Amino acid sequence: MKLEAPKRLSAAICLAAIAFGTARSQSDRGRVELSVVATDGHPVIADVLLNGAAGQVLRHGRTDSAGRFAQAHLLYGSYSIEASAPGFAVSRQQFSVESPVPEHLLLRLKIAPVIASVDVAARQQIVDPDAARPAVEIGRGQLAQHLPPQPGRGLLDAIADQPGWVFEGDGVLHPRGSEYETQFVLNGVPRTDNLSPSFAAPLPDNDVESGEVLVAGIPAEFGRSLGGIVDISTGAAAQHGWHGGLAVYGGSFATAGGDARVTFGTRTQQLLVSGSAYGSDRFLDPPVLPNYTNHATAQNIRADDQMQLSARDSLELDFAHANLGSDVPNELVQQEAGQLQTRRSHQDSGSATWEHIVSPDLLLTVAGSVLDVSAELHSNALSTPVIVQQTRGFGQGWVHADAAWHHGHHDLKAGADAILRHVHEDLQYTITDASYFDPGTTQQAHFAQTLWDSEPAAFVEDTMHYGRWNVAAGVRFDDYSFVVDREAWSPRVAVSRYLPSAHLLLHAAYDRIFQVPAIEGLLLASSPQLNSVSSFVERLPVEPARANYYELGFDEAFNGALRLTGNIFSRRFTNYADDDTLLNTGVSFPIAIASASIRGEELSLVMPDWRHFAARASYSNQIGVATGPITGGLFLGDEGASELATTGKFPISQDQRNTVAAYARWSPIASAWVATRYAYNSGLPVELDDDDTPESLEPEYGSAIINQVDFVRGRVRPWWSADVSAGCVLLHRNDRDLHLEVHVANLANKVNVINFASLFSGTALAPPRSIDARLRWSF
Questions:
Q1: What is the C-alpha separation between 66 and 498, in angstroms, rounded?
Q2: How far apart are CA 609 and CA 695, in angstroms?
């Protein structure tokens, strides 16, 4: 029997209360506290280097006068840590983070011998034998070595290099075929709205310390938006005193920008203040080669304060503000008419997280955040075929509480969270060229609405370790109340078995998914205010997607220097989430398709560091097929009627069959490096009318773009891009370093088409050859 909304909310709260009393578990991050002493026990001021299991997480720090170093926000996994000081031999130790309770380590530094010697270190364990679920790490070191040709995309590019992730135009990420279902988790606070460059203010690339990318074995703690999880930690690495850095960069397309960060650390506090700004004349991916109206500027500032209030209590406060202003790139006809469309995005956020250690095995966490997001779209009077003005956004409150308990073979966790949003949308349009629309379409319309969104949830999960077996199991309850009221139970389980003789980890995962519709444009798709816009109007409630995710895979280490990962996966959806546009305005709203099936295979090879050489490569093969009819959304005119009548199978818009990404870096000396990056994409589907031919479309797009479309296969032709980079240390003095980096993107200057004539993404071109340079100073 279906519960009424208040009863469902009460059920969620009761479930959370029961969970608190019966199960407690690991926080999703841990902490290491290191003491460095000489052999006589006296503390040593030493440089500290922390590496993740796959070499992706890299952090530098220094102990204080008492020889202490601490680092929070460590994701689960294996790490190595080393300490070095003048006159002492380097000391190293490996450890694992499997609990939120701090890991205490002691490194003793021996006096360095006078004669030359070879330092033989224990080989790093690059496959974590205790990992129940597969995950990919990204970190500051990886991001610092890459300057994207389009600003604000450093983090997005690093994610897109992982197998299973597909880029569409304008930096839109698609994890394993999901549409706009990437959830970013910033310092434990979830963001389920669209954070792609054309929708939102920039992500804090310069603040990322470490991150973890999940597409399977998703913990029950995560919900709502579950195509892929990007769990990011920002904040300051634990260092005593004042430290910081400054970077300036510039290059092709009048691109210029910079970022700065300052940290101050004491034994009980780590404070970070950072900011960045940039501008570019090629921010989005334009639809034609001339790159019309594509200027953008962005700014963000962040403050993060981590305080150790007592031996048992810690508090973290985080505040951020970001702005983005950008032009919408014109097509040729729009440019000739004098069109100018601009977007503006703003966001303000604040969060607080309190942790209390009840006992060495029990941790309580309470967190909350507030978020205010707004976006605007404006058109001038010369816009064609429609003048559109839009304002949308939401104010959001989020609360979370959990208990984590380590007991024997178990790491348990239980908790509850809730999102409460006040959503507003306001849109008006005026048609300037009626030939683009069905007869009878209303020439002018105005839509405005506000509505409250309530999404409480509760979860229980347990990670168990029995010998070489690891099991992570959990269940989540979601209550969604916005345009429709729905609830769901979502069981999830991940199992792995480590074979030490082969250095091989075998793993399998099943995830039951309840995925809420995208918030952007959902009121527009649901309101009866547009009933008079067209002679044909059909509105169907946009239902949450429900899906079953399956994965089998392995991780294998070769000689402690190579890590090979392989996965096969299948995702089966009911009410598959996609999007559509209102008339020809470029304003999107979510829709749902009856079902979809996405399957594929992935391989990745990582060499963290071998004789001054590091490399990684990935390959994914993916097939995504949707089956009509349309089950949710707003449909207008003849085109809307035909969409509703579609009942056959068709490829999803991000059905890219083959994707390759590779990166190699060589450091012949400690102060210099060269690198190359390669990407190959087999091409996305195109949406063509029966009368579309190369000859009919060439005047609109040009022969260079039309030649990159296979009209027989109905796909963009395969394309590739190769980048080169180089960097060196210009100055190194004590703790002060000055770095110079030069990056050349698309070395062959190929015309690469990402999307062509897509209903929402339109036509989008990847960057041509571009050159950028960056100067970084750290102290």
A1: 39
A2: 52
